[in-house]
Design goal:
It is built from four helices and nine strands, in the order H-E-H-E-H-E-E-E-E-E-E-E-H. It is α+β, with helices and mostly antiparallel strands and 163 residues long. The chain has one domain: Roll (Nuclear Transport Factor 2, Chain: A). The strands form two sheets. Strands 1, 2, 3, 4, 5, 8 and 9 form a seven-stranded mixed beta sheet that branches. Strands 6-7 form a two-stranded antiparallel ribbon. The longest helix has 16 residues. It is globular and about 50 Å long.
C-alpha cells in the first residue's frame, strides 16, 4: 500500500467499532445515500482506488467522496456490497481491511465520459483498507479488478475484440 501522508492514529482500532463503522460505509452505498459519508470521513479524507488511479481523479474530502459515491451509483443504480470475509486489523496503527463482493447491472450512465449502460450484470470482489483518525476514516486504499469489471459490463473486449 502506498504511503499517503495523512495523519493516522498510532493506536490500533477497537475491532467492534471498525465493524460497525464499515456497516455504515456499506449502508451509505447500499441505501443510495451518499450524504451519509459526511459522518464517516475526515474533512481531508482521500480515496485511492483503481478507478481513481486509472482516471487521475483526485477524491479528497467529504464532498468529493460523496460525489464519487454518486458517480458510481449513477452508473450502477442497483449496486450492492456485501462483506465476504472477517476484517483484518493492524496492531501498529488505526487501520482495518475489509473484503467485499459487489454485484449489480450497468443500467445507468458513466458520466464522464458519457457512456450509456449496457444492462449487463457484474460481480466483482475487492479489498478496502481504511486508515482512521478518531472515529472517522482519513484514507481509503481500494483494490479490485477494474479491467475484469469493464469486460463484464461490455466496455472492454480486449486487443482481439473477443471476450
Amino acid at each position: 500500500m502506498a504511503t499517503h501522508g495523512a495523519k493516522v492514529d498510532s493506536r490500533s482500532l477497537e475491532r467492534a467499532f471498525a465493524v460497525e463503522w464499515y456497516a455504515g460505509w456499506l449502508d451509505a452505498w447500499n441505501s443510495n445515500r451518499p450524504e451519509r459519508v459526511f459522518d464517516l470521513l475526515t474533512e481531508d479524507f482521500v480515496l485511492d482506488s483503481p478507478t481513481t488511479r486509472h482516471s487521475g481523479w483526485l477524491v479528497r474530502g467529504q464532498q468529493a467522496a460523496a460525489d464519487y459515491v454518486r458517480y458510481v451509483l449513477a452508473a450502477y443504480p442497483d449496486l450492492r456490497w456485501e462483506v465476504t470475509a472477517p476484517p483484518m486489523f493492524s496492531d501498529e496503527v488505526a487501520r482495518a481491511a475489509f473484503s467485499w463482493r459487489g454485484t449489480g447491472h450497468f443500467t445507468g450512465r458513466l458520466d464522464p465520459p458519457g457512456i450509456e449502460g449496457t444492462g449487463q450484470a457484474f460481480e466483482f470482489t475487492g479489498l478496502e483498507v481504511f486508515d482512521f483518525r478518531g472515529e472517522r476514516a482519513c484514507y481509503l486504499y481500494a483494490t479490485y479488478d477494474l479491467l475484469g469489471l469493464m469486460k463484464q459490463i461490455g466496455l472492454y473486449r480486449g486487443a482481439s475484440g473477443g471476450r
